[in-house]
Amino acid sequence: MTSLEDLISTWAAKFRTHPDGSRLPAHHAACLGCGENNPHGHHLRVHREGDGVVARHTFDERHVGAPGIAHGGAVAAVVDDFYGFLLYLTDGPAVTRNLVLDYLAPVLLGVEYELRANITRTEGRKLFVEATMSEVATSRRVVCSTALFLKVDVGHFLQGEPTGSFGQGSGQ
Ligand SMILES: CCCCCCCCCCCCCCCC(=O)SCCNC(=O)CCNC(=O)[C@H](O)C(C)(C)COP(=O)(O)OP(=O)(O)OC[C@H]1O[C@@H](n2cnc3c(N)ncnc32)[C@H](O)[C@@H]1OP(=O)(O)O
């Protein structure tokens, strides 16, 4: 298993210039939102678009709340992780301090949605961000969100103990 220290150095290398249109790297291979090796994960694939990020995503039976409808917590997990890709357009890591979602309409299983997010302003350590999720076929907006991320130093990530499949794979 890769050590946490190795992972942190891998993460640090991801904070580089990412050309407009390029796919952004996963946070790590086991990440619930974007890790390729997490069987329970959402496997988000996120691209830079200008000063923002964009992704397409379809929820499935693993994320069911009411029949045929995605669980609100699963939707929040995707939005939260999606915001985590905006960090690659900044100079270093930050974590979610505050996350607000307006569920405008049910998010349906098996339906493709487009997510978009951008940074609205920065104040010292604070990154204020916003996101939307809309049905691809109809452009109908189903979620809008704001969040506050706070920049942290590497020590923040040394508070946890890596377990299980954490660290397997590159997460690139
Ligand atoms: C090189 C290594 C690379 C590693 C690269 C890793 C990649 C990274 C990706 C990981 C994957 C991403 C996935 C998605 C993102 C997650 O899911 S992150 C996980 C969920 N979030 C967490 O676990 C964070 C838990 N919370 C904490 O650890 C601490 O609260 C924090 C966030 C570190 C902040 O602690 P703190 O520094 O003590 O904060 P505090 O002094 O209370 O507040 C700081 C400022 O914010 C203000 N503030 C606080 N709350 C609010 C609010 N709600 N509204 C307005 N202002 C507020 C305060 O008033 C204060 O303002 P100032 O007085 O400074 O002006």
From TrEMBL:
InterPro entries noted in UniProt: HotDog_dom_sf (IPR029069), THEM4/THEM5_acyl-CoA_thioest (IPR052365), Thioestr_dom (IPR006683)
CDD domains associated with the record: PaaI_thioesterase (cd03443)
Membrane topology: Peripheral membrane protein
Keywords, comma-separated and alphabetical: Apoptosis, Cell membrane, Cell projection, Cytoplasm, Fatty acid metabolism, Hydrolase, Lipid metabolism, Membrane, Transit peptide
Gene3D superfamilies: Hotdog Thioesterase
Pfam family, one: 4HBT
Localization per Swiss-Prot or TrEMBL: Cell projection, Ruffle membrane; Cytoplasm; Membrane
Thioesterase domain location: 68-133
GO molecular function annotations of the record: hydrolase activity
Major location category of this protein: membrane
Enzyme class: hydrolase
EC number(s) stated in the UniProt entry for this protein: 3.1.2.2
Catalytic activity: tetradecanoyl-CoA + H2O = tetradecanoate + CoA + H(+); (5Z,8Z,11Z,14Z)-eicosatetraenoyl-CoA + H2O = (5Z,8Z,11Z,14Z)-eicosatetraenoate + CoA + H(+); decanoyl-CoA + H2O = decanoate + CoA + H(+); hexadecanoyl-CoA + H2O = hexadecanoate + CoA + H(+)
Family: Belongs to the THEM4/THEM5 thioesterase family.
Protein name, as recorded: Acyl-coenzyme A thioesterase THEM4
Lineage summary: Bacteria, Bacillati, Actinomycetota, Actinomycetes, Propionibacteriales
